[in-house]
Amino acid sequence: MKRSRELAAVGAAMVLATTLVAAGPVSAAEEGKPSEPSLVGSAKLLRKDGQDVRFAFDARGLFPESRGTFRVSHAGEGFSAYFRGRIDCLVVGGPVAVVTGIVEDTDVPGLKDRRVGMTVYDDGRRDRLGYSWGPDPENKQIVPPCLSTATFERVESGDFRAVEWFPPGSGIG
Q1: pLDDT over 70 (residue 54)
Q2: How open is the CA angle 130-134-140, to the nearest 5 degrees?
Q3: Between residues 40 and 140, the one the model is more confident about
Q4: Per-residue buried b or exposed e for 104-131, using 16+ beta carbons within 10 Å of the residue's own CB
Q5: Which pLDDT belongs to residue 141?
Q6: Which of 95, 110, 125, 150 is deepest in the core (most CB within 10 A)?
Q7: Region label for 2, one of left (φ > 0), alpha (ψ between -120 and 50) or beta (otherwise)
Q8: How far is CA 13 from CA 2, 24, 80, 100, in A?
């Protein structure tokens, strides 16, 4: 009986070892850790005068490999505007994300093909947002990649999620 228990224990150990070797090392993604920075979500800004200002982001990847999309709409009494584009930079540090992107579609004169910058402070359900852009037909006020402004607007509804990530061995984070 003792011998059969020993054989069973050895057999179980061999099965466990074979399973662990076959599975390989656990990657960061498998452990639930991010493998790249991201900024996702959508929100409506708090405007006491009734204006409807909305932002949406689906941005991933560390600059210069950043990718994704953004959308902005702004409607008020007697006017509306929108633009959307592709992300060309994303940097996330803690709860703050800075994105820039190139406007690809808009109804705002002078904004198409321009770079715009946006900053998000991910504070749970009390997120904040800032932005830097404006029509500039003479291209004198160009927004550089990865640059925006302080988060001066408050979110009324919706949520943004900023996920920080830096490459292993970078010394950051």
Answers
A1: yes
A2: 120
A3: 40
A4: eebebeebeebbbbbbbbbeeeebbbbb
A5: 74
A6: 95
A7: alpha
A8: 17, 17, 68, 53
**Calpha distance 57→38 (Å, rounded):** 9
Banded pLDDT at 127 (limits 50, 70, 90) = very high
Residue 96: both structure tokens together: 């703050």
Q: What is the pLDDT of residues 16-51, one digit of tens each?
A: 444 444 444 555 455 678 899 999 999 999 999 999
Which residue would you say has higher pLDDT here, 110 or 86? 86
Residue holding tokens 């960061």?
28
Establish how many alpha carbons lie within 13 A of residue 45's alpha carbon, considering only the half-sphere containing its beta carbon.
24
Q: Contacts from 81-86 at CB under 8 Å and sequence distance 24+?
A: 81/106, 81/107, 81/108, 82/106, 82/107, 82/108, 83/107, 83/108, 83/111, 83/112, 83/116, 85/116
Residues in Cβ contact with 98 at an 8 Å cutoff, skipping those fewer than 6 apart: 89, 90, 91, 92, 117, 118, 119, 146, 147, 148
Q: Is the dihedral of CA 92, 124, 52, 84 positive or negative?
A: positive
Residue 2 has pLDDT above 70, yes or no: no
Helix (H) or strand (E) holding 11: helix 2-23
Query: Do residues 120 and 128 lie in contact, with contact meaning Cβ atoms separated by under 8 Å?
Result: yes
